[in-house]
Amino acid sequence: MSNSYKICTKCIMDTTDLNIYFDENGVCNHCKEYEERAKKELHYDKAGQEKLHQLVNKIKKDGKNKKYDCIIGLSGGADSSTVAYMVKRLGLRPLALHLDNEWDSEIAVHNIENIVKKLNIDMHTYKVDWEEFRDLQLSFLKSSISNCEMITDHAITALMCQTAAKEKIKYIIHGGNIVTEAVLPKSWGYNNNDWRIIKGIQKKFGTVKLKKYSHLSLFNWLYYIFMKRIKFIPLLNYVPYVKKDAKKLLEKKLGWNDYGGKHYESIYTRFFQGYYLPVKFGFDKRRAHLSNLICSQQSTREEALEEISSDPYPTEEMKKRDREFVIKKLGLTEKEFENIISRPIKSFEDYPNNNFLFKKLNFFVNLSKKITSNN
Predict the structure, then answer these.
(1) Which residues contact 296 (CB under 8 A, 6 or more apart)?
(2) Element (H, E) at 174
(3) ∠ CA(96), CA(71), CA(267), 5° rounding?
(4) Label partner for 96 (CA 20 to 30 A): which of 28, 60, 66, 268?
């Protein structure tokens, strides 16, 4: 790849993704990969709707005589909130799980309360041990790898699997989807499932042992998928999911309030995506999000280019406030935070990881995906 800057002629992904490549027409690999995934994973047609109908009936049958027939994660964001609304419309009996890592915004708390109340959904909230989780967040900042949010994503997946096994529930219905989340450069992050790298980074930079942090080893992950037969259902891939329409529906039906950005229901995530990544690593995750919307025809390239030209933060005042809040909550001084920003950038390959095993076990990973999509 040339060192000169280049941007896709179809979406707005560019060479801030170090692994990007373009065809003879200047169209990037992300656009091509989206098309392939959409063909395989979107089920909007008649056959797909019949498949959804059969799946819902199977969930109800397997959940008969149980208090709940499925588990959903609920962050208060648009995707998870839409899933909560849809599973109730489909007549399912979900147990909602929420991970409280002490970074929820006031709007998120309000949205979640509205959702569970108006939809009459039971919810279990799991609070992290703050001193332990804070130390882990600091370890990841000190590690200088870009995917500092993997520790929250990993814990959520672990909690859902552990709870599903405990409650003897086979189905985890989640908000992951193709039309808004398929585009995400591998050079910008690393596998959230890898407990080894989390453990390794904490051992190198942390000051406390992780005793209460919910996690999944590679063995645990395979155990839940193949032995306990827990299936992950990407419900939003079975219905036409238009983000702006979904938000309007949530506002009207559930009194939901928008956050002004993807995943901005968390103050830390808002700061991480809106400040930390652009300043330290030089990329803006909105570029991937907006490119995904172009691929799914929910945005034009012109609209995306206009949005990406603005600051990720809605206001300078919010950016300043979040920066001060995060530094203080993490127990850092201004100098310590600036030292973190100025540390040399590292890759996941600089730390113990199971990437080799994940590649070697690719057959099992693909098989698990096939199981979740065909059942």
Answers:
(1) 34, 38, 178, 179, 180
(2) strand 171-174
(3) 45
(4) 268
Is the residue at 206 inside a domain? yes
pTM to 2 decimal places:
0.93
| 4 in a structural domain | no
What six digits make up the tokens of 64? 């008969």
Residue 125 within a domain: yes
The one-digit pLDDT tens for each residue of the chain (375 residues) are 446 999 999 999 999 999 999 999 999 999 999 999 999 999 999 999 999 999 999 999 999 999 999 999 999 999 999 999 999 999 999 999 999 999 999 999 999 999 999 999 999 999 999 999 999 999 999 999 999 999 999 999 999 999 999 999 999 999 999 999 999 999 999 989 999 999 999 999 999 999 999 999 989 988 998 899 999 999 999 999 999 999 999 999 999 999 877 778 899 999 999 999 999 999 999 999 999 999 999 999 999 999 999 999 989 999 999 999 999 999 999 999 999 999 999 999 999 999 888 777 666 656 555 544 444
| Closest CA relative to residue 177, chosen from 247, 235, 259 | 235
Contact 79, 180 (CB under 8 A): yes
Give the domain range for residue 136: 44-262+349-374
Number of structural domains found in the chain:
1
Strands 171-174 and 231-234: parallel
Q: What is the three-state SS of 115-153? A: HHHHHCCEEEEEECCHHHHHHHHHHHHHHCCCCCCHHHH
User: Residue 81: inside a domain, yes or no?
Assistant: yes
Buried b (16+ CB within 10 A) or exposed e, 209-226: ebeebbbbebebbeebbe
Residue 55: CB atoms within 10 Å: 21
What are the start-end ranges of the H helices in 63-129? 78-89, 106-119
Q: What is the CATH number of the domain that holds 78?
A: 3.40.50.620
> Nearest to residue 334, comparing CAs of 318, 323, 344, 343?
323
- Contact 164/73 with Cβ under 8 angstroms? no
